[in-house]
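Need the bound structure for guanosine-5'-diphosphate, inputs here:
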Amino acid sequence: LLHQAAFLKSAQIVEQCPPDEGLEVAFAGRSNAGKSSAINRLTGQRSLARTSKTPGRTQLLNFFTLDEQRRLVDLPGYGYAKVDKAVRMQWQEHLDDYLARRECLTGLVLLMDIRHPLREFDQLMLEWSARSGMPLLILLTKADKLKFGAAKSALMQVTKTLKDHPAPLRVQLFSATSGQGCEQAWDQLAEWLRI
Ligand code: GDP
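Answer from helper R.:
Posting the output first, comments after.
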């Protein structure tokens, strides 16, 4: 089903989102975390979510349909220094709004570069998950960039830091390049989307 993903629409504000029905899983991550690459890999489509985009032009919620009842959402990423503070605050507001209001959201995939985990943006998403009880799948991306031992140790470190997280949480290694972690991520998405 994930391979059937097709671009549906972009929304700048919650009012432009598709009707709040069915099931939705969202992907979030700082700019450059590897979010687009992960979405493309998981859906088996090379250019569904555009990789290497122009900063500032992609700060939209992008919706992809799987079938009539199921969707993936690419949430805006943060982290580009080039964008001024006022604009960033505005994205933050729209993102908060989406997270607070979206009833059909059943899970959140948080992507973090394995070499730079748990930055400010990630903490915000973790806090929101803790408050709302939203289940989280954390993908430590670009795992292929580290040797096996270093990747394993990064995984253990993040897992340990988050051991008291009050919402359901899974942390795993992921590589869009090698495909590492895809099977487990698919399993989690299938559960959330009741596929
Ligand atoms: P986004 O801004 O979070 O959507 O990040 P992108 O998917 O555009 O990836 C940012 C950069 O990291 C690009 O140059 C990708 O080619 C690279 N990248 C993404 N995933 C991987 C991965 O699994 N392994 C490696 N080696 N590079 C990756």
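Comments: Residues 2-192 form a domain with the Rossmann fold fold (CATH 3.40.50.300). The first strand starts at residue 6 and ends at 11.
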